[in-house]
Amino acid sequence: MENLLRRSTMQAVTKKQIGRMQERWVLETDRTAIAMRQGLAWMMPVFFMVALIAYVIVRW
């Protein structure tokens, strides 16, 4: 009887852990996507400012 109780408890714990791992992966993927977009949001204006300065220097 105790073995059966232990086994069911262990299965419940592993199912909880698996659920948490899946949630963690989703959160990490979302966080990575957000960080990538933030990096792109910073790089685009910087690139265009450098390109504008280069254009002005070449035309001058």
TrEMBL record:
Transmembrane segments: 40-58
Keywords: Membrane, Transmembrane, Transmembrane helix
Taxonomy, superkingdom: Bacteria
Protein name: ABC transporter permease
Organism expressing this protein natively: Acinetobacter entericus
